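Thread: "does anyone have the structure for this chain?"

Original post by V.I.:
We have the sequence but no experimental structure in hand. Need at least a predicted one for the grant figures.
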Amino acid sequence: ICSGGSTTLTATPSATGGSYTWATNSSTSNTITVSPTSTTSYALTYTLNGCTSQSSSGTVTVNQVPTVSVNSPTICDGQNATLTATVNPAGGTLLWGNSQSTTSITVSPTSTTTYNVLYTLNGCTSQGVSGTVTVNSLPTVSFIGDQLTGCAPLTVNLTSTGGNPSNCSWTLGNGQTITGCTTSYTFTQGGCYDVTLTTTENGCSNSATLNDYICVENPPIALFTTNPNIFTTPSQVVTFTNNSVGASSYVWEFGDGQISTEENPVYSYASTINGTVITLTATSLLGCESIYELSIQYQEGEIIYIPNTFTPDGDNYNQEFLPIFTSGFDPYNFEMLIYNRWGELIFETHDIKVGWDGSYSMQGRAVQDGVYTYKINYKNLINDKRKIIIGHVALIK
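Reply from O.Q.:
Generated one for you, tokens below.
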């Protein structure tokens, strides 16, 4: 029998009608029911017509009931679990449910499930035990960003909105990874970016991806040229050439309070003497702006008068040969040279206030009447360009 069980011992005599004496039992029947805890022998004598048989015995063999235990794993939905039975003593057979007879089984339950197992050894079967596979659901993953479009640099606040995750990991389309269930990131380059959020809850992870979730636009480049690029008259018309990149609308500020939204405006300035600063604001479709400024200065043209004759005859009129500048020259960068007909230098000055009086040498000797060659070097006050004027002047006494 198995430990804890019972059995019936039956005596079979060669002739009936006698009486039975069990050594360890008061029964006089030919049968007794016993429940030994270990292997036990039971002796019996049989008496018929005053004669008693020799003692006879029967042995009840008691086999141990084996034990079995099973692990109870926890998995995430969609995963496999392995249940393993541990037996004592070894050498018997296992039965999972109604079919499998292996030491371990691999299962894929979609919800928490209990699996029963029986272990049999020497005809004794363990009490039924079970292992439970606990299935945790995958976390629900969802998220939002507070700004999905904008101009670079664009700072986006990202927030997980699904369940109560214990941790969050974000993977962005530019390869960057950030952590935190509420976090932020600044996109410095234009483009559309995927966003993937991976969260963990109760030991289970799940991910969600939104493709091209955040789109960032690089700022436009505002740029233009003008024709002319220098004012040379008190009122002047300027043509603007727009060289901007990535813009869809424009605002021109001409520096005198007037504006235009044309792409390539032409503007007439009524007063240019003080110069002006033009500002172009270029705006993209998403509202990204770029500003470019360009100044146009007023350059007064040189006004110079050079006489072709002078009369150094002592009458206080027209006694010197001297160019007359009224504007546009640098008085500190002036030179005038006078040559005779043989190419000899007979006069030199670097002072605009000092002219040639018709003499030469340190002694101030008067030259003869005739035609002399002058060479005048000077510099424009605005653009620093040097100019040379060569001509002839007649000396008459």
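V.I.: this helps a lot. The radius of gyration is 59 Å.
O.Q.: and The chain has a mean pLDDT of 92.
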